[in-house]
Amino acid sequence: MNAEAEARKIGIGALFDRASETYDTVGPRFFTHFGRRLVDLTPLKPGSIVLDVAAGRGAVLFPASQKIGPSGQLTAIDLAEGMVQRTAAQLASTGITNARLIQMDAENLDFPDASFDFVLCGFGLFFFPQLSQALTEIYRVLKPGGMLAASIWGKADERWNWIAEVGLRPKPQTGNSARRPVHDNNTTWLETALNQAHFGDYHQVKEEADMTFASPDEWWASEWSHGARGCLERMETEALAQAKTAAYLKLEEMRQPDGIHHIYRVIFNFASKPAE
Question: Which residues contact residue 158 at a Cβ distance below 8 angstroms, ignoring those fewer than 6 apart?
């Protein structure tokens, strides 16, 4: 691995370590909602052997463990130690016995070839510094005929474009860029990577959900609970305070009687390893 990719990976793991305490527990639980939808759309069966990559706080793990039943087996991995520790503790408290958590790098899976019927990945693919390596590993550990099911963000809610304007996000890239989009309907980068990793039968399902934040304070707390935290941490103290003030003004303009609405658009992607 090149030094730049290794540094990015270390940074991503540390970022989600810091976010792990409140990840998917503040504001509308969109990870939980779309994690269940990914499981609903994947043809898991009782007895399936499943790998959950970039498991986070269990948005995919918990509904998947229910769907495969006691005869199934689920292994969940995450790069961030804090995510693994907190989710493992939550798992232990539920009494679920068909799932386990391991700290592991998705680009170097420590499993034998053809170990899993399904590999699930909720909102993780765009974070991998070496996506081609991760997909090659996923392909390797899938059984022939096995399926990868992965969610990515679709096009952002246009009403929230002001986040970049006030400085809380990088402004959208223009022209040719090697950077994979986090919020976009263009999935060419993923389709190309899946083809290069020899996956077939690729198809998508697109969904959206309208969710609400109760207040600007809840939205601000949510921003620190997931990957956006990295953007905030890189800002100078004064610039961050100014951007927060500007954001609160925008949020008050958007506030409706039932809260501050945000439409989350998601693309669920499915691809299979050809059967022998």
Answer: none
Contacts of 59 (CB under 8 A, 6+ apart): 24, 31, 32, 34, 35, 36, 122
List 200's β-bridge partners, or say none.
272
In angstroms, the CA 30 to CA 58 distance is 12
Supply the pTM of this predicted model: 0.94
pLDDT tens per residue, range 161-179: 999 999 999 876 654 444 5
Name the DSSP class of 154.
-
Kindly report the CATH class assigned to 3-157+174-212+263-272.
alpha beta
Cα–Cα distance measured from residue 79 to residue 100, given in angstroms and rounded to the nearest whole number: 15
pLDDT tens profile 94-148: 999 999 999 999 999 999 999 999 999 999 999 999 999 999 999 999 999 999 9
211 phi/psi in degrees, rounded to 5: -125, 160
Cα-Cα-Cα-Cα torsion 8, 9, 10, 16, nearest 10 degrees, comes to 110
Tally of CB atoms within 10 A around 255: 16
CB 115 within 8 A of CB 105: no
Comparing C-alpha atoms, which of 2, 153, 122 is closest to residue 52?
A: 122
Residue 147: how many CA atoms within 13 Å on its side-chain side? 17
- Specify whether the CB–CB gap between 226 and 123 falls below 8 A: no
